[in-house]
Amino acid sequence: MKKQLSALEAKYEAQKLAFAPFYFQATLALKELGILDVIAKVRKGVRMDEIVEKTGVSLYGIKILIEAGFVSNLLQVDDEDRYSLTTVGQFIRSDRMTEVNMNFTKDVCYDGLANLKESIVNGKPEGLKVFGNWPTVYEGLSQLPEQVKKSWFEFDHFYSDDAFPYAIDLVFRENVTHLFDIGGNTGKWAKACCEYDEEVKIKILDLPGQLNVAQQNISKESYADRVTYHEIDLLDESQAIPAGSDAVWMSQFLDCFGSDEILSILKRVHEAVDEKAYVYILEPFWNNQKFPASRFCLVGTSMYFTCIANGNSKMYHSEEMEKMSVDTGFEVVDTFELIGDSYHTLLKLRKKS
Ligand SMILES: C[S@@+](CC[C@H](N)C(=O)[O-])C[C@H]1O[C@@H](n2cnc3c(N)ncnc32)[C@H](O)[C@@H]1O
User: Rounded to whole angstroms, how far apart are CA atoms 187 and 89?
Assistant: First the structure.
């Protein structure tokens, strides 16, 4: 049960939402104009006139932003009008996860998010038109403006990178000879597998734009001949997943699809594998988080899927994914909650005999 807020507290919480875009933009400006850096460098704090001098921003501009930072709890002020960073301000200034999330919000989502309601009503990513006329972001990913692409990939990789070292030990506990990486993207997992195991052969399945990038990334590696590429659009139900794998890997992949589409993909995986193969689903399930901040970010990320990505997918609850797996003929043989800095859970499935 959530703690009941007093009316005064509740009204304040409501205003935080009403003004959220203002404070988001002010926070960005405080960071990008170097104001947080100037403040962080002097332990006893800095006065406004000193910040003006060191940043070259007008006194008017500094007042606007410092006051915003003060009321939103990024900055504190002492009796001599010296401003210093609070712990929140320190996270905004130098925490990598916060930076990745803010850049993703700013570059990929901010403009398009104004179309959230329309996206919900139409079941389409109406915010994507900010960048182009693709049905989903995945068709346009390799053509997005450089800064948008950078923030998209940094967001995607920040989370999966931390999960891979733990997950790879778990996958290679079994004897894996032919691993299919569905939605293999830039080839990071394929590279990690080839470096981990000298024999394993990997097939990356993805849309053509991403496959080209993966191929470029892997072509110069000594193990390049152990990686093959299979162009596929899994939204097209007539496209089958080829046979020949003893492990199928889907990392941060099924969250790119609505539940009907996931059922269709899992059915095709089921048709492609035999009873001895293992199928792995790696996802940051929103219910399976150690910290409230992670849950908050993941539920927020669902709105990126609605508005920018494809209009029908989301970050899932682990039970939804398990049910879809069972409904398509798999059994969940193991569940690993990954350790370290990971937010992910690894589901290990096998075809029900
Ligand atoms: C969020 S990325 C995940 C990348 C990577 N597996 C990871 O863990 O970082 C999703 C991947 O799924 C691919 N994808 C999305 N829609 C697809 C489709 N309809 N058919 C095939 N691949 C698709 C995207 O191109 C992208 O590479």
Answer: 35
Tokens, residue 290: 């150690």
One-letter amino acid at 274 equals D
Encoded tokens for 137 = 């972001």
CATH code (residue 89):
1.10.10.10
- DSSP at 57: -
pLDDT, tens digit, 9 for 90 and up, residues 121-149:
999 999 999 999 999 998 898 899 999 99
Which ligand 1 atom lies nearest to the CA of residue 233?
A: 20
Nearest alpha carbon, ligand 1 atom 27: 185
User: What atom in ligand 1 is closest to the CA of residue 164?
Assistant: 8
Pocket of ligand 1 (CB under 6 A): 138, 156, 160, 183-185, 206-207, 210, 232-235, 251-253, 256
| Domain boundary, last residue among 94, 119, 151 | 94
Which domain does 82 fall in, by range?
Answer: 7-94
Of 9, 76, 12, which Cα lies nearest the Cα of 40?
A: 76
